[in-house]
Amino acid sequence: MTYGEQALAKAPLVVDNDGVECPNAAYTTIQAAVDAANPGDTIRVCAGVYAEVVTINKNDLTLKGEPGAILDGTTIGNVTPDAGIVIAGGVNGVTIKYFEIRNYTSPFTGEGDGIQAWNCGTSNITIKNNVIYDNSWNGILVGNEGEAVHTGWSIKENNVYNNGFADIELTNGKDSKIKENTVSSGSASFFDGILVQARNFDYGYLPCSLPGATVTSSGIKVSDNEVTGPYPAAGIDLIALAGGTNGPRTAVLQDVKVAENEVDGARILARGFAGTFGGTLATVSDATDLEISENDIHNSPVPGIHLNRVTYSEVTENQANDNERGIVLVDSDNNSIKENEANDNTTYGIRLIVGSTGNTISENTATGNGTFDMFHDNTSTPNTWDENTCGTSSGADIDCP
Question: What is the reported pTM?
């Protein structure tokens, strides 16, 4: 190949569905351009409404939408998979940016995603500056039941809203970030704004190996997002979930940081489900080594920050004010709750229940809460309460001058 041919090969592949905006475009569908592309190519999609399911099964591609480039599933009908853009298993190095993706649903399953990578693992995928809404399942769906790990995802600066299940879901991810997105939920949504999971089920219906005995999701940062309710259709949820019928299963969610997010009308939940959930008594879920720091959570009708079966984690310098409860630990041990504000919540400021022990609660401020500013039940001791500020408390060991 000559130098001139190399230069030509790197020119963008241009798509225009009607030839009006870009008369010299070589392709009328995005899928045709993907099929013709080589690794390293950029596909430029001109303004227009594209009724497609685009499958990316090649490495190192960039899909760039021009203003007005819309993927719309309204007229797609029953196709599998039902999503605007599907990233195939094993794909590496794809960037998708500047698209509007909407209205994907299947008349058969009732499910549809904006961008989907529910497969046997992908790596180094960037989803940036897209607007994704009104899809019947997820806005962005990444993961599997435990068969593999998705590594190096960057989901950044997107506006994702009013999708049916989760707006952004990253299940079984590693070394990834969800950053600077605007996420909001309307009447169509019923689960999460941002969902991060370690999930290990033995369904084994994907075309790859059965789930292993242990799957670990780690190295994930959720930061600088704006998440707006109403609850329960929004929030930031960190969940470890295992179950099955063919032997023991373990799901581990660890080394996850949730920092500097603003959450209005919803919650931050971290939870390791009990071992019997969805399967045998041998299933185990661990949520551990989490950091929840410098978030502002308000107007939640449930606890602003809720830890359930979480261990060895830090909740630091958050504003959990004007919620139903501020910070709650349920059956959670050996955590650090430090330098938070939990003020003017309807019932409790900081509350430990159901055998939460070995925790250190220090240098927090909790005032003006409706029931108690600081509270633990008779099963949640011993814990260390040190240098906190509050008005009312229940528990003789609570240091609360």
Answer: 0.94
